[in-house]
Each structure stands twice: as structure tokens, then as C-alpha cells.
Amino acid sequence: MKAYALLGGPEEEWPQNIKNDFALAQQKNDLLIGVDRGSLLLEEMGLIPDLAIGDFDSLEKSELAKIDSSVPDIRYSSPIKDATDSELMVKIAFEDYHVDSLTILGATGGRIDHFLINLFMILNPKINKYAEKITLLDKQNLLNFYIPGQHVINRKAGYNYVGVADLSGVKDLNIEGARYELANYSNSYPLIFGSNEFLPDKDTFEISFKKGTVAIIYSKDINRFHNI
Amino acid sequence: MKAYALLGGPEEEWPQNIKNDFALAQQKNDLLIGVDRGSLLLEEMGLIPDLAIGDFDSLEKSELAKIDSSVPDIRYSSPIKDATDSELMVKIAFEDYHVDSLTILGATGGRIDHFLINLFMILNPKINKYAEKITLLDKQNLLNFYIPGQHVINRKAGYNYVGVADLSGVKDLNIEGARYELANYSNSYPLIFGSNEFLPDKDTFEISFKKGTVAIIYSKDINRFHNI
Fold this sequence. Notes:
Two copies of one chain form a homodimer. Chain A is built from six helices and 14 strands.
């Protein structure tokens, strides 16, 4: 079973057709998860999440009542907590629902502390074991995550650029068969290699590393702006 | 002298009144910097940057000609380079222009590899020595950066939340006098403590740490969404 989770990030950053994609997923019996305000946003699209997680402290009573009366599985988190709602969601998806993959939307844009928490939760050892099953998705970016080993990175249609992000410090990172290669790179802190590309005649390249967590950031230009 | 740099990130993320603020800065003889497409965006606002930096490879010839004929100091970077245009900009601002502070705009939104590069360049040892003089600013967030030591964090009007982001692993991080305190926290990888707050009767709190780089992320809700 696949799972899709909507967090409370701004709608402007959502991929197009999110409503249809979620509806289609539910028809296939995939799991639809709302995290905090994301639960309400799903209901506003006419979709009932299968699972809702949060402290719901930003919701009006009537909004929470609507979720409470419709969602089959609601998990209330404490406002003061060790794990964020996003982390709790990942754990419940994999440990209670045993999903095969999890795509997280609504994680980007808006408050930068929120985005960074949602991105860097992947380094939390309780989450990191599921890293390779997690995708972060918005209208312009798709992120996959990798733990140490050898990995084949596949071209994805519509994305012109691919960044390789060392999120935590890395040992012996190699990038082979991409436009810009890298050999045995080690560092003790995060560093992002942006704007790499697949070679014209290849749909894959390889990465390998011995320690750390690496994100592959697929991205596209939506307007002509770019900022490095 | 203060400096303001505009990178090429999407306009939707810029603070309001950016044009007036830049115009006012130039009247005060502060330094206005355009980085790559940011140079053109400044000219489109009717402002001539004092300094333009980039490989300008995303610009049309006519666009580049416009910059070339108007900007007093243009530094061309190589498209294949060790330093990003943002890093080059920071170095030139502090080392050639000896500015006292640098506020970077247009660094957020759009491509996540770009944003993370602009954020994590602060860990580059060649940039890190200027960390405490650098501010990242968009419509919803203001980021300050700190190197090891004791620091007083000041309330800023209009920002409800304050996150404390360990960007690289940290030793003995303390947060004192804020709503959520922290004592002697150490970690080997980035971790973000979001949604902290100033106490109602206080306009400051203190942080201290012995190793690492910490970002203070001031943020506000623009809409009602939030995502953790």
C-alpha cells in the first residue's frame, strides 16, 4: 500500500492536480493522511483522510468537529512533544499501517522553520530507517532520500535539474555518470551540489557513500528565475 | 556601509515594499547588489545595482547588454566553479567593499537545491566568518546566524515565532529565557527547534553553544496554514 500525506504548507506550493491525484489514490485503496491543518485542507477538497494526526491547535472547534466526525482514525498529539506531528505521521504510516511508500506534500513554502523540520526529520534515527521509502513533493521539486550504499538514480520526466544534497556530513560520496562527477567526497557538515544533470544519452547515474544521508533533489524551472 | 543583495528567487517570496526599501538604501549610499538574474530584476524595478555578480547564463544577450552598460562593477563568474555566485557575492561584499552587514533577498522559494545552497553556504569556512553579519529575508521569514559563544536574541516586531536551527551539529546548546528552554544539547547532525516564542514580559532570550553554527529563524503566519 502507498501512502500520501498532506501537511499544512501553503497551497501555492502544491503540485497541480493534487485533488485528482488524491482521489485516484483513494480509489486504489492507498492511504490518505492529513497532518494537522492538512486534514482540514483535504476535507475542503471533498476528500476524507483515512488517518488524521496532529494537535489541531490551529483549528476552530467547528473545524475539528468536522474532522472528528468523519475521519476513521485520528491520533491526537500533545502540543508539547518530543516528536513533531510530521515525525509521528511517518512512524504511524510505516509501523501501524505498514505502507510501502510515503509521499509527503504541503511540506514546503511558508515558514522556513517548518520546512527545515520536515526536511531534516529524515536524519532522526527513528525516521531514517524509512528514508528510502519517503518522497517530498511540491509543484517544482521532488526529493528522494538515500542511506549509505550504492544507488542508481533514475531520470524523472519533467525535471531538468538534479541536485545531490549531503544533509548531515558524508563519507566517500561518489557521483558517477552524471554531467558533474564527484569522487570520494567527505565532509562533516551539510553541503549541496546543485544543478547537476543526466547525460543526454543516459537515463540514470550512480551515487555511493559510506556514511550520512543524501537527498536527491529533482527540480524544474517554473519561471525564468534562478538564484545561484 | 550596509549591503543588500537580490538573488533570482521568485518574486512571490520577496518582502513587501522591496522596491522602496532598495531605493531608500541607495539614497543612503548603502550597497545594492544583483546576483545573476537578480541584477535584471533590480533594473526592471528601475534600480541600477552598484555591483552585479554572476555567470548570467540564464539571461538573453539584450538583457546582459543592459546590465553591462549600466552597472559600475560587474564580476563574471565561470559557469563551472568552486564557489556559487551567492558565495562569491558574500566574499566580494565583505572583502572588497568591507560592508558592515549584508541582507540577502530572493534566496527562498522555487528550487529547493537553490534555497539549500543559499542557506548552507553559511557553513563554508570562507563564509562562516561573516555569519553574524548576514541576514536572509523573505516575506515571511528573517534568518540571523551565530557562531559559537553567548548571544542575546532580540524580539523583532511582526514576527510571532522564533526557531533555533542547529545547521551542522552543535555542542552544548543552551536556550535560556524563552518559552521552551534547552540545556546542554549536543548533536552531530542538523536539528531544528521550531515555534519557540519570546516570553510575554521579555524582549530577549539567550542562546549559547561551543561548536557549530546556529540560525535564528524569525517567522510569521501569513495565512492560517502551518505544517508541523
